[in-house]
Specification:
This protein is an alpha/beta fold. The protein is built from 11 helices and 9 strands. The chain is globular and about 60 Å long. The relative contact order is 0.13. The site of adenosine monophosphate has 17 residues, from helix 2 and strand 5.
């Protein structure tokens, strides 16, 4: 695996692949890599000739300075994990490489996606996310971009922005990789205490009970889910039954055939998000 720390080094490494018209798959991450990230790398490896992974903890998408300061940084171990799965290029830039002083971010229209769920709870987060994804895509110019269903709203926003980005790539959504007890893997999970870690799988358990046969309406399910999670000392930020494409709430089970149930809770020091798809 080759490591590029500057845009110039990255361009040099990609030069030959581009000249040979090789397909480039790109997996942007913030590091502290786990099996969920590695699954994205492996999928890209299967579907492209060259796979690029970036590790960049993007300051512009953190609306909480303490969260940014505490974000786990494990670059050396990450590089070893990527090497093991034969990732071709690791792009490991500094903030100045990603945001040089003469670079100005285009102003993207995020539509209603910015004011619901994660957008409502984390003002400015998606603006920063869109900015960094655009910038990284501009530097890597991949054929395929791999993102996880774990961050469904992030994925949906990038899908919405494809025409505005105008960079000609295909967007691929990869399924959520979970721990054996159902907890969605996340770089932040390491900050859970033993007790909090034991409670956390209740989120997925609660999501999987969302069967229309068991609940009269999405709001009946929602009330049940909130009560169940709050009984386990989680602070529920939202539970929403939404259409998977618009991410807008549905009022009855038949309103949309492609639904997602999205949850965000605060558990001890961290926020956990998760979602599942239902028909
Ligand atoms: P992050 O490093 O958290 O910004 O995540 C980088 C990419 O990995 C994003 O596209 C995430 O949606 C994806 N991802 C994070 N956790 C998981 C998971 N448990 N399963 C699959 N993909 C994931």
């Amino acid at each position: 695996m080759k490591i590029a720390k500057t845009n110039e080094a990255l361009a040099t490494l990609l030069q030959d692949a581009k000249a040979a018209n090789h397909s480039i798959g790109f997996v942007p991450t913030m590091g502290a890599l786990h099996a969920g990230h590695i699954a994205l790398i492996e999928q890209s490896k299967r579907e492209n000739q060259i796979t690029v992974c970036s590790i960049f903890v993007n300051p512009t998408q953190f609306n909480d300075a303490a969260d940014l300061a505490k974000y786990p940084r494990t670059e050396e171990v990450d590089a070893q994990k990527l090497e093991k799965v034969d990732c071709d290029i690791l792009y490991l830039p500094t903030v100045d490489e990603v945001y040089p002083s003469d670079w100005q971010s285009p102003d993207f229209d995020l539509g209603h996606f910015d004011s619901i769920m994660e957008g409502k709870m984390r003002p400015g987060h998606f603006k920063g996310m869109a900015q960094v994804v655009y910038r990284l895509l501009y530097l890597v110019r991949p054929n395929k971009l791999y993102m996880g269903q774990k961050d469904l709203q992030q994925f949906t926003i990038i899908k919405h922005l494809i025409p505005q980005f105008n960079l000609g790539f295909e967007l691929i959504c990869a399924p959520i990789v979970r721990e054996a007890d159902g907890l969605a893997m996340s770089s932040r999970n390491v900050r859970l205490s033993e007790d909090e870690r034991a409670i956390a799988p209740l989120i997925y358990k609660t999501l999987t009970t969302a069967n229309p046969a068991n609940f009269k309406s999405p709001s009946t399910y929602r009330d049940f889910a909130i009560t169940q999670l709050e009984h386990a000392y989680m602070k529920v930020e939202y539970v929403e039954v939404v259409d998977r494409n618009s991410l807008l709430p549905v009022n009855n089970w038949t309103e949309s055939q492609e639904k997602a149930i999205c949850v965000a809770v605060q558990l001890g020091p961290i926020r956990l998000i998760d979602n599942i798809f239902i028909d």
